[in-house]
Write a structure and sequence with these properties.
- By secondary structure, the chain is mainly alpha-helical.
- It has 2 domains: about 140 residues, no CATH class; about 200 residues, no CATH class.
- It is built from 14 helices and no strands.
- The protein is elongated.
Length: about 375
């Protein structure tokens, strides 16, 4: 064996080790690392599968059909992910075996037999046997890693959805911040929002942790087609912003803390998906809500007997000053997850908000929903 051939085999060996190491690190960062980590292999797996689903949803004739299609996106992606890992390890070990002197077919056969623990091919040498045993153990560990973290993932999903379902009782379906404030005023008293703000502050903190460390949760859809974690989050944030800006009640620091926890959580998820936003927006920066839409809610609160502040203009400025903190990330995440219709959330798209015709259409639809129509 000449020097060039030896160098080529060493390069192949290092390439195989690099491939295997990257697959293992991808698996560990995806499920075992207790913090946000943007893993290239995982991201591209989800991205390619999402492209295929987008082609299918374009042909959907209704939101219900699109929701049924997208309900399978996250589970199928998680199902494919370990297959990608296994394939990557097989390729990596095939390169290693080839570098150690096996021909291409024998290297692939040895790698596949070891990875899938089929046992139809076993090498004679001690070194090769150690490699085969390590590959078999690695394959079982990758599958076990996914299986061990599925209960953790579904536990976080269950906690998220219990709050989303409870919100439907107070905010309606589709959820509306105005409807929630009116219902609280008529049934329980607006003081109840303080207790809800405490619960939702915790919900937002858990959302930030779980939906960045286990990012597939972002795409898990609610059991009910009209529910969504992102529309629930937006409804609570808007209800809190209306309470702090428009409702004539003493300032509640807990409501303000809930809003802050909410936009911090949404921004963290946006950071994971490389969604651009202004981290320090000004209170008078433009938002996706039209002044006419705010005035309609203001009048609706008055008609329902909810005490509102007399200075409508200042109430609008204060509301916009709260909304600007989460406006962009809320809309982008709603589009990313193909969220169901909800007032001031998924009824507008960032690519269309500058279009006055589109804005007018959104306003009409928002008013119809608020008045009980469709």
């Amino acid at each position: 064996m000449n020097v060039l051939e030896s160098l080529a085999r060493i390069a192949l060996l290092l390439t195989g080790v690099f491939i295997v190491a990257n697959v293992v690190l991808s698996a560990l960062k995806t499920f075992a690392l207790p913090r946000s980590a943007n893993v290239t292999l995982t991201r591209w797996t989800f991205h390619i599968i999402r492209r295929l689903f987008d082609l299918r949803t374009k042909k959907a004739r209704s939101y219900e059909e699109r929701d049924r299609i997208m309900a399978l996106y996250a589970p199928i992606s998680l199902f494919v992910l370990p297959i990608v890992w296994i394939a990557g390890v097989i390729v990596g070990y095939t390169v290693i075996y080839f570098a150690l002197g096996l021909d291409a077919y024998s290297a692939f056969r040895t790698s596949g037999s070891s990875m899938l623990t089929l046992g139809f091919f076993v090498s004679e040498g001690t070194g090769m046997l150690v490699l085969e045993f390590s590959q078999a153990a690695l394959g079982m560990l990758l599958v076990a890693l996914l299986m061990a973290y599925l209960p953790t993932m579904y536990g976080a999903f269950s906690r998220r959805e219990s709050a989303v379902s409870l919100l439907e009782v107070r905010a309606g379906s589709p959820p509306s911040p105005a409807e929630m404030l009116i219902r609280l005023h008529q049934i329980q008293g607006l003081e109840r929002l303080h207790t809800m703000a405490e619960q939702w502050e915790i919900w937002f903190v858990e959302l930030e942790e779980s939906h960045t460390s286990l990012s597939a949760l972002v795409f898990f859809r609610s059991p009910k087609p009209n529910n969504s974690w992102i529309t629930a989050a937006g409804t609570m944030l808007d209800a809190g912003a209306l309470m702090a800006s428009t409702v004539d009640r003493p300032d509640d620091p807990q409501v303000q803390l809930m809003i802050r926890a909410g936009y911090i959580a949404l921004r963290s998820i946006a950071d994971f998906f490389s969604i651009a936003y202004d981290p320090n927006p000004k209170p008078d920066d433009p938002i996706s809500i039209a002044r006419e839409e705010f005035d309609q809610v203001y009048d609706q609160l008055i008609e329902a007997g909810v005490p509102v502040k007399s200075d409508r203009d200042q109430a609008w400025r204060d509301y916009a000053g709260w909304r600007v903190n989460y406006d962009r990330v809320l809309l982008v995440l709603a589009e990313l997850t193909l969220a169901p219709y909800a007032m001031w959330i998924s009824d507008r798209g960032l690519s269309h908000t500058a279009d006055p015709v589109y804005r007018k259409g959104n306003l009409k639809r928002s008013l119809a929903i608020m008045s009980g129509g469709r």
